[in-house]
Each structure stands twice: as structure tokens, then as C-alpha cells.
Amino acid sequence: MEEGRKLQRVSRTAKDPVRLRRAIVVLMSGQGQAVRDITSLMRVSEDYVRDVIRAFNERGFAALDPKWSGGRSRTIGEAIRERIRLIARTAPADWDLTAFSTWSLAKLRDHLLDRGTVAVISRETLRRILRDAGVSRQATTTWKASTDPDFIAKMQRILDLYDHPPDDGRAICLDEFGPLNLMPRKGKAWRPATSPRRLRATYNRRHRVMHTLAALDLTTGKIHYRIRRRKRHHEFLDLLKALRARWPDQRLHLVMDNFSPHRHPDVREWAVDHDVELVFLPTCSSWLNWIESEFAAPRYFARGGTDHRSHAEQNAAIASFIRRRNARATPKTGFATDSPIRTWTH
């Protein structure tokens, strides 16, 4: 009876089809079913049924587990596989193939056969060799290196502000977000299959644009912002004055890029007179500005999939999202801790 109950549990819970089929065969035999009846119901041969029953009688429940063999041995050795992976990571031009600029599986296979790297190989085998090594077909991306002669010094100064916030002041990252124009914006939403949400395809540019000037306080993780028609040094200086009024007794360390309004003489003079340090990023290094990563969320959640018809409506959506975000904000710590920039010295 105990074996019968255990076989019932196996027949209900087994995920391996072989183990499930063998358990059902033994269970039906234990219930008095004839071999011919079992074969007709399970669609197996009589020899299979007898072999399963005999093995269960000899070895018990261990006979239910499949004994997988290793399969056919590999015809392509590891050294050849590694060479295939190396060739796949090169460009066709490296092999004087100027008719195309990138490999497809078919073109790579033909190249391997023409060079004699392998005698025979299918596209599916080639795909598996590359997949097992973590080599996949990816889109090309760009990277613009900084030409700033003081790149290392500036980067280390910014990282030091991130890692060791000053006790007598605040580190704040500033940047502009926009332009905020009025147009239908693609987004994502949960919808019934094959029934996407529709937005109008045509629109008029009659309302000009607006810009968000934002500041990320690393101590609290909150964003302080202004939405203005222009982003000249006048508007930027108004934001700095608001930050100064918010923390009148602390020295402010402002991390920002090299946008011309940030470097305006009036801004520099005001900073000197009001105990504010302007920390400029190296050229072409906006990724060092922590606030850059914070702009993705309002772009996705406040503007994605929308069709605002007025700036007041769009500004209200952005304001609502930032209020909700600030209510859940936490101090910003651990900037790019695993990034190679932490070990750059030249």
C-alpha cells in the first residue's frame, strides 16, 4: 500500500516524462491491468511494459529514473571550437572579404568551409558553438572618449564627492532635461494581445518648447527642478539661488557639464560670492553626472505613451511624478562601484 501511494504521488508530480510514464505503467500493473491493456492505453510496446515491471521488481523506485547516456561524441574538438569563436568576433574585412561588412551564420559557415577550418558544419551547430561561449549577435554602439587633458583629475574629484560627501556641505548634480515639446510619444502599456493603444500620427508645433533645469541632492536623493521657456544663464542662476536659499549655511559643491550658461561669468562671479564650488565634468563625460541616470524615469513614466495638448498638462505630469519620486527618495551612494573607471590611471 505504501508503494502504491508513493507511485500515485510520482504520477501526479513527476516533471520528467520518462519517470512519469514508468510510474504509470507500474501503477496500472499493480492495479491488475493486463500487459495488453497497458500497451494500448500508454501507446508503448509489450516488451517495454515487461521491462519496466521487471526492473521495478528488482530495483524498486530507482528503476523509474531514466539513465541518460552521454550521446554521440563531439566531432568538432575544443581547439577548433575556440578558433571558430575567434573568427566570429572578427570582421569580414580582416579576411579580405569586402562584399559584406558583418557575418551571418550562413556566410560564417561558408568562410569556415572555404578556409578548411572544419570539413563539415551546419548553421545550427555553429549557432550552438557561439551560444555556449556567450558570443551573440549584438547591435553596434558608440563611445566618445574624452580629450580633456585633465580628465583623470576631474574624474577623481567628482568620484571623491560621490564617495565622501563633505560634512560641512552638499554635493549636488545639475543638468537640463528636454526639450519638452508637445507631440505624441511612444510608450508601453498592458493591453489585450494585437490591440495596441493608438496615438495620433500628425501634430502641429505651435506651442514651442520648454526645458527642465534640475538638481539632484545626493544627501537626500531628491530632485529639485524648474521648468522654463529658456535655459539661459539667467534661468540657471535662478535655480542656483533657490538651492542657496534652501541650504544657506552649507557650502554647495555643484557637479555640472560644460554647457555655456554654466560657465557664464555672472554664474562664476555669483558662485565665488556665495560659497559655491562649481565642479565641471571632463569634456565628453556626461556619464559622470549622476543626475543623467535619473532622467530616464520621468522620460519613461511621465512622458512615455502620452499625447499632452498643452505645456501645463505636461508640466503637471512631470511635477506629479517627481513629487512621488521624492517621497520615496533615499540618499545616493555607490556610484559605479564595479565600473572600470575606478581603476583608470591614464
Structure description:
The chain has three domains: 2-64, Arc Repressor Mutant, subunit A (Orthogonal Bundle), CATH 1.10.10; 78-132, no CATH class; 151-185 and 206-335, Nucleotidyltransferase, domain 5 (2-Layer Sandwich). It has helices at residues 2-13, 17-30, 35-42, 46-59, 78-88, 105-115, 123-132, 151-163, 233-246, 265-273, 296-302, 311-327; strands at residues 169-180, 210-217, 223-228, 251-256, 276-280. The model has no long low-confidence stretch (mean pLDDT 91). Helix 1 (2-13) runs antiparallel to helix 2. Helix content is 40%, strand content 11%. With 346 residues, it is an alpha/beta fold. Strand 4, helix 10 (265-273) and strand 5 form a beta-alpha-beta unit. It has a five-stranded mixed sheet with strand order 3-2-1-4-5, sandwiched between helices.
User: What is the tally of helical segments?
Assistant: 12
Radius of gyration: 33 Å
Order of helix and strand elements from N to C terminus? HHHHHHHHEEEHEHEHH
Remind me, CATH topology of the largest domain?
Answer: Nucleotidyltransferase, domain 5
CATH class of the largest domain: Alpha Beta
Outline, from the CA principal axes? elongated
Write the layout of secondary structure elements.
Blueprint: H1 2-13, H2 17-30, H3 35-42, H4 46-59, H5 78-88, H6 105-115, H7 123-132, H8 151-163, E1 169-180, E2 210-217, E3 223-228, H9 233-246, E4 251-256, H10 265-273, E5 276-280, H11 296-302, H12 311-327
Parallel strand pairs: 1-4, 4-5
Antiparallel strand pairs: 1-2, 2-3
